Amino acid sequence: MANGYRRIDLQKLSQAKLDDAQLLYGNERYSNAYYLAGYSIELALKACIARQISSETLPDSKFNREVYSGHDLAKLVKLAGLACDHKEREDRDPDFAAGWAIIVEWNPDTRYTHSDKDSTQILLESIQNPTKGILSWIRNYW
Asked: For residues 50 and 7, is the Cβ–Cβ distance under 8 A?
């Protein structure tokens, strides 16, 4: 990916990280599963951002810095142009809002922390739920 990250590659990476998280969870490697599950959401949001970028337009350098160095999931929702839809979804769907509250706590530093089985299971469920999950919502926009 010498010329940046293609949207399709970010989508595949997102799914691969989630698949790996499930595999690790099943093998009782909860901390690494937690980290990769959150990372899958970061990559999914970056796929949404990639969808907005026109091949005919050079994005603003500040925008590029925020995307490439951004790991704050709430900020990535804004950069992806999803803030209004996100707010509406949270307002009408308490399960979605609860799932987001769990997921937004993730950050790259979780790779240095211990996560237990329960917190990892809750994170995975918040991501994967087919109707209320965060990833199914993101996939509408990537």
From this structure: yes
Q: Which residues contact 89 (CB under 8 A, 6 or more apart)?
A: 96, 97, 137
Tell the residue number behind the tokens 């959150």, with chain if given.
Answer: 38
Q: Assign 3 a pLDDT band (cuts: 50, 70, 90).
A: low
| pTM of structure | 0.87
Q: Which token pair is 124?
A: 């995975």
62-96 per-position pLDDT tens digit: 666 676 667 789 999 998 999 999 999 999 999 99
Are the C-beta atoms of residues 2 and 85 closer than 8 Å to each other?
no
Phi-psi region of 113 (alpha: psi -120 to 50; beta: other; left: phi over 0): beta
Cα distance between residue 57 and residue 59, in whole Å: 6
Q: Which CATH code is given to the segment(s) 7-138? A: 1.20.120
Tokens representing 9 are 């590659």
Choose among 13, 19, 27, 36: nearest CA to 111: 36
CA angle 50, 51, 54 (to 5 degrees): 85
